[in-house]
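The records we work with from here on pair a chain with its fold. Each token is a code from a learned vocabulary of local backbone shapes. A record is reproduced here so that you can trace the correspondence yourselves:

_____
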Amino acid sequence: MNRYDPSELRAHPLAERRSLLSADETLVDPDSTPAVTDAAATIAEAAKNIRAARERGAAVILVYGAHLLRNGARCSS
């Protein structure tokens, strides 16, 4: 089994990182109707991608969570 080698990690200061999303794209009005999602399909797709990566011998790190900005916490007035 391949082990994660932290010496291979290349960290960069936040000021040098390019964000893939802006706050305007992620803000959610707390009073809006929740989005409908297919959690089972999302999990199945993630599992498929993880399995494919492992079959290629790639390391896999699964990270998930809920960030306040994306949950509408900044839309309070």
Notes: Residues 6-75 form one domain. The longest helix spans residues 39-55. DSSP finds two helices and no strands in the chain. The two ends are 51 Å apart (CA to CA).
